[in-house]
Amino acid sequence: MEERVVVLVGYAEAELLDIACVTTGLTTANRIGASPAYAVSVATPGGRAITCDSGLTLQGQRSLERLRGPLDTLIISGGIGHEAAGDNPRIVGHVRRLARESRRVASVCTGATVLASAGLLNGRRATTHWLYAEQLAAAYPEITVDPAPIYIRDGSVVTAAGVTSALDLTLAFIEEDHGGELARAVARGLVTYLQRPGNQAQMSMFTATPAPTNGLVKRVVDHITSHLAEDLTATVLAAHAGVSERHLTRLFIDHLGKAPGRFVRDARTEAAAHLLTSTSLPVASVAAQCGFGTAETLRQAFASRYRTSPSRYRATQSTSVT
Fold it and tell me: How far apart are CA 164 and CA 26, in angstroms?
């Protein structure tokens, strides 16, 4: 098996975890696989050590300026130094040059800023850390920025969301390059899920809890997530909370950024996605358990949120269906 040459580009105040998720994932594939699969290195300006945004120092292994292709994969790390890196003509110029000599180009988190500065995202759909998505879209209007997915593939360019999405991206690359068996073995070795779906939202609504100071909103959310198959119309929820529909809607928008009906639909869709990838229940049964009523209603919700059908989602994202 010929090694695939993978280079990560680091710079001052890069995020160490962006880099480590990739290097650890790929070197684990090397240890587990029958033969080395990847030749992994970190390239920095001048090959010098960089101080990451955590304050830790990382030694560069290769000089960005002297690096030559062909490369299999070029990955740009993110970090709070992404704006300075994107404004540095030497870094941007060498990234642009190396991209032409690479089979696949990717960024993690705010590393998308560097790809954007190099013109590599023009006319493409891309993602970045949700906190910086609006900033990227405003600075580069020629890019279609989608802040929701874990990662987005547009041709030979892949952009990943914040920080630990680097691990999801790495596992996806391993599966693409060497098959699902090695990817699953690496995931087990790293004690993680095989990978979150690329089109899964960066932040799950089940972890984005409402402000703890508003007990009413929290009680309604808890009721929704534990009674998905029941009647969850705004009228029923307002009665459950003992307030008017108008007041409940105002509270939800203030604390969750969405009306009760939208929250319920998103909660049901996310729960359905979990059931599709973790069970062998028929799609109609999944729809019923999550409160959609019919498989067609579930299909419409999936098309809106995940841009795919429930059956296709299950086929491409399932890890251990039982």
Answer: 15
At a CB cut-off of 8 Å and minimum separation 6, what does 285 contact? none
* Spatial contact of 30 and 37, defined as CB atoms under 8 Å apart: yes
3-class SS at 31? Answer: helix
pTM exceeds cut of 0.70: no
Amino acid found at 303: A
Question: Alpha-carbon Rg of the chain, whole angstroms?
Answer: 22
Nearest by Cα to 221 from 243, 200, 203, 205: 205
Determine the Cα angle at 14 with ends 118 and 164, to 5°: 100
* d(C-alpha 317, C-alpha 196), whole Å: 8
Return the bridge partners of 223, or none.
none
Q: How far apart are the two ends of the chain, measured CA to CA in Å?
A: 33
Which of 140, 169, 201 has the alpha carbon at shortest distance from 75? 169
Reduce the DSSP state of residue 68 to 3 states and report it.
Answer: coil
DSSP secondary structure letters along 100-140: HTEEEEEEEGGGHHHHHHTTTTTTSEE---GGGHHHHHHH-
Span 115-156, pLDDT tens digits: 999 999 999 999 998 889 889 999 999 999 988 788 889 999
